[in-house]
Design a protein that fits this description.
The chain is mostly helical. It has a domain of about 190 residues. About 85% of the residues lie in helices and about 0% in strands. The protein is built from 20 helices and no strands. The radius of gyration is 23 Å and the shape is globular.
Length: about 500
């Protein structure tokens, strides 16, 4: 894929991801309004982490990273029917495995609820039991998404995540009108909505799959030769992803231990991080895996280095100012976005603290989404896993230290800081290994570009700070959007004066 087409495709995925992220933001606004940072909402977020763990592991994580390069190579080498056969066999194995795991967890949760349990545990288990089958649907949907992306059909998979958010929002509007329901009952209705959305996300992509020539199997071999190859390649990545996602779950549990507000405050702050992250980084990472798989298969080192250079500089151009802005303006942003209904001043305080600790990591989270696909494209799933294991181990240690050392009201923010510090180590280690053994990326040029972006952020961030302090009596709904828009203009003009070449590349592509 040539550079113009790369950024055009990234633009399509960005639009779909941005739509999903904006809908997700509205979803969280309604969640904050109805549940605030009370136990029912926090327990729901913890419960949703369980099926989400499997989605990120088998849907968007290790399985996709192992399957997409194998599918592309099989299709290019042996023809489209061989590729479809590999997909059918892999999908059947995925459905059988996740179905079995889901049934086992359902039975275990049902058995546990027969015994006296703390209120927090019961509040998590009840919605979790309803949402667990969502795991099968969403992981199959993610596998179909990977196939469509490998055929450069980006629009349908890019917009399918919007389905979850639309149904979630509709359900929130419904339960919000029901004044006769307790918060715990509203959380259960939301769990049913999530399950229904998973079914629709999977089924909505099937027409596009059939249009490519796919037909349902009359016979499958879940452990066929091609699938075994995928599983062997997937093994190390699955180990690392499993540890990472278990760490995410541990974060949620520790946050609930820190206070019933913890998981909700982290979730609401994460949503504000995911908005800029999904706008470009996630979209670019989606495009880069099949693109880099092709470059690696052709042994095009020059093309790979050029793609890395453009991707990293373009990413930094957007993520550095976003990170600075979210850090400095955390409190007014949280207040403007969430402060209504049950989301009171205390909720604003807790969420803003978490956001300030998360925001500096926005650039780090973005870089991981570009660096890791380079290893996966070369069939190297072991190296990122080894680094991830060290990073996750450090994160767990930091989380335990922060949860003990930090005072009440700050413990959940310490969990965010631990995540950022561990991911920073991961990025540094990945970059060093890439430079020495995979591809010679022009890091000096990238660092020089990043320095210009940081310099442009100084007048950019002074602009909204000055406006908010000058007009404190004016509503945030007026001053904050105006200040942010003016800051974006200032940043653009500063990067133009500094002759940042990313502007030229964006304009041409």
């Amino acid at each position: 894929m040539k550079s113009p087409r790369l950024f055009r495709s990234a633009g399509i995925v960005s639009l779909g991801t941005l739509s999903s992220r904006i809908l997700g933001l509205f979803r969280e606004i309604f969640m904050a309004m109805i549940f605030g940072t009370e136990l029912a909402g926090s327990a729901f977020f913890v419960a949703f982490t369980i099926p989400n763990l499997f989605r990120r592991l088998f849907g968007e994580g290790a399985l996709s990273a192992a399957f997409i390069p194998a599918y592309v190579q099989t299709r290019d080498r042996d023809g489209s029917e061989a590729g479809w056969k590999l997909f059918r066999n892999t999908a059947s194995l995925l459905a059988l495995f996740l179905g079995g795991v889901t049934l086992l967890i359902l039975l275990s949760a049902g058995l546990a609820l027969r015994f006296p349990l703390p209120e927090e545990v019961v509040s998590v288990l009840l919605p979790m039991r309803i949402m667990l089958p969502y795991t099968v649907c969403i992981c199959l949907a993610a596998l179909v998404m990977g196939v469509l992306n490998s055929h450069r059909k980006f629009a349908v998979p890019a917009f399918s995540p919007c389905i979850l958010n639309l149904i979630w929002i509709a359900a929130l509007l419904g339960v919000g009108l029901r004044t006769d329901l307790y918060l715990e009952e509203k959380a259960l209705w939301m769990a049913w909505a999530v399950l229904f959305a998973g079914v629709l996300q999977f089924s909505s992509q099937l027409p596009a799959l059939f249009a490519l020539g796919y037909h349902p199997p009359t016979r499958v071999n879940p452990l066929g030769p091609g699938v075994r190859r995928v599983l062997i390649r997937m093994g190390p990545a699955a180990l690392g992803a499993a540890v990472t996602q278990i760490n995410v779950l541990l974060d949620r549990v520790l946050a609930l231990w820190a206070g019933e507000y913890g998981p909700s405050a982290l979730a609401f702050s994460e949503r504000l991080i995911y908005l800029p992250l999904g706008l470009f980084a996630t979209a670019l990472g989606t495009i880069l895996l099949p693109e880099m798989s092709g470059l690696a298969h052709r042994k095009d080192k020059e093309g790979l280095a050029k793609t890395m250079d453009q991707s990293l500089r373009g990413l930094m151009y957007i993520m550095i100012p976003a990170s600075v802005g979210l850090t400095v303006l955390a409190s007014p942003i949280v207040e403007m976005v969430y402060a209504r209904g049950r989301f009171d001043a205390q909720s604003v305080l807790f969420t803003a603290r978490a956001l300030r600790f998360y925001a500096p990591g926005l650039l780090v989270f973005s870089l991981v989404k570009v660096l890791v696909p380079v290893f996966y494209a070369h069939g190297n799933t072991r190296t990122p896993v080894k680094i991830a294991l060290w990073a996750v181990s450090g994160n767990i240690l930091l989380n335990l230290i922060f949860i003990i050392v930090l005072p009440d009201g700050w413990k959940h923010a310490g969990l965010a800081l631990g995540t950022v510090l561990s991911e920073t180590f991961q990025v540094i280690a990945l970059a060093r290994i890439l430079q020495t053994s995979v591809v010679k990326t022009p890091w000096r040029s990238i660092a020089a570009a990043a320095a210009k972006h940081v310099l442009a952020c100084v007048p950019m961030i002074l602009t909204p700070v000055f406006i908010l302090r000058t007009f404190p009596e004016v509503s945030l709904f007026i001053t904050l959007p105006a200040a942010v828009l003016l800051a974006i203009v200032v940043y653009f003009l500063c990067t133009l004066a500094l002759r940042c070449r990313e502007l030229r590349e964006f304009r041409h592509h």
